Amino acid sequence: MSELKDVMRDLLLRGRFSDMEILCQGITFKVHQAIVCTQSSYFSSAMCDGFKESTEKAINIQDDTPETIERVLSFLYLREYSEDGHIIQYQQPISALAICDHESGSSLPENKLEISEPANQAAFNNIEVFIAADKYAVFPLKTLATLKFSRWANTNYSSPMFHEVVQKVMTSVPPHESALREVIADIITRHIFDLIKNPEIVRNLDSFGSLGSLVIT
Q1: 85-86 and 27-31: which strand pairing?
Q2: Does the pLDDT of residue 104 top 60, yes or no?
Q3: Which end of the chain is more exposed for a tag (fewer CB within 10 A), N or C?
Q4: pTM for this one?
């Protein structure tokens, strides 16, 4: 099993035998339709419905960051993603699993260690991955992102920036998706006497009536 994972990692990092490109804010991810399209109806439709993307074998994504696309692809190839880092370092301010810089065409090194981000960024990364997984119809990734988010939130609910995480969930996650909201509501319910001492949390509950309803049910 580890040998197969090594092969999949090599395919992702090096882009060998790729037959599809995902372009995101100047970064080109060289990927494989057999891996990406079989796990995402979004990418499958883009490649098979006879539109421009299917002819050029390239999809241009601007709504998500390269870091988020990296994590989505990491899951599709490796069934895992790093919530607080990246597998390889990129020369520009971002770090991504992109195979080449779209501007220069330069290849990325294969032997970089995972690059870490600030620990408090993990929550926001997991939220963005969850949103992307919903958008691209990668449903097992939504489950993993929810699990990672829940672990972070249960450990860091007393963090000074927890209210910012709550606000991000309530304003960014699509209304039809309740998983992350339920995680937040459960934590607030279990730690209500501690959290109501934080005026920002109280403000969150006042601002988002649906969250308050989840807390009291």
Answers
A1: unpaired
A2: no
A3: N
A4: 0.85
